[in-house]
Amino acid sequence: MAEKKYQYIYGPVSSWRLGVSLGIDPISQKDKICTFDCPYCQLGKTEKFSAERKIFVPTKAILEEIKSVPPSGIDYITFSGSGEPTLAKNLGDLIRGIQKFRNEKIAVITNSSLIGRTDVQEDLMLADLILAKLDACSHDVFRAISQPMQGIRFNQLVKDIKEFRLKFKQRFALQIMFAPVNQKYTQEIAQLAREINPHEIQINTPLRPCGVRPLSEDEIRDIVNCFRKICGDRMMIANVYEASRKETLPLDSEDTIRRRGDQQ
Ligand code: SF4
């Protein structure tokens, strides 16, 4: 029925981080295209690594689809989907285009790998909320949990996040996925989070089937307590087990599940 009506947008999904979120997939290719190969990724293995920005879907085609979605009940229009959304060279044009005819806030979920680039920063500055991934505290842990493509160095990535955080005037959240492989580095990751000083820290664990064991509620509670100690009581810390979700009815359920690589 509605199966092929929407090619580039999905949801709305009930996101523990964003309320009701209408997803935009500016990559929308058959295979995921990303700079990372996170073992917990809902999209499977990364077969196509790329750090090259290009236009995957014409701006007009995506804007036309969004125009046809009724605005009711949507909290955020969120760039995510089948790969790293900052790889889309038309990200800025898309955000500007959406802002002309929609009132919802705009979020971008990024793995932070391109956040140091001037052109990417210019695009991200247009958004209301950036959710930036940081799952590690050293290059070795980064290699284990994010499996980045060659050339991406952890120290540079952290430096880039810190610089962007200082420049970005809207809401900035750090999203951290915890699994057995980075659990023992909780203190070091929390220390880095403190230095970055986001508006919010979102602690996640892969609850949907993906071959990586999710941490239990107790384990996540210990992690949150550690973050609280290191980042202070005033830091807003959300975690996937305690977040509430709103009821939603996706435009196309199967397609929506397929595209949610970052376990929103
Ligand atoms: S979880 Fe996100 S960053 Fe990691 S491989 Fe999947 S799309 Fe890329």
TrEMBL record:
Source organism of this protein record: Candidatus Danuiimicrobium aquiferis
UniProt keyword list: 4Fe-4S, Iron, Iron-sulfur, Metal-binding, S-adenosyl-L-methionine
PANTHER family referenced in this protein's UniProt entry, alphabetically: FEMO COFACTOR BIOSYNTHESIS PROTEIN NIFB-RELATED, UPF0026 PROTEIN SLR1464
Family matches, as SUPFAM superfamilies: Radical SAM enzymes
Lineage: Bacteria, Pseudomonadati, Candidatus Omnitrophota, Candidatus Danuiimicrobium
PROSITE patterns assigned: RADICAL_SAM
Top-level lineage group: Bacteria
Keyword Cytoplasm part of the UniProt annotation: no
GO MF annotations, alphabetized: 4 iron, 4 sulfur cluster binding; catalytic activity; metal ion binding
InterPro entries referenced in this protein's UniProt entry, alphabetically: Aldolase_TIM (IPR013785), GTPase_Obg (IPR040084), rSAM (IPR007197), rSAM_sf (IPR058240)
Entry protein name: Radical SAM core domain-containing protein
UniProt cross-references to CDD domains, sorted A to Z: Radical_SAM
Domain Radical SAM core: 17-247
Cofactor: [4Fe-4S] cluster
Short name of any one Pfam family annotated for the protein: Radical_SAM
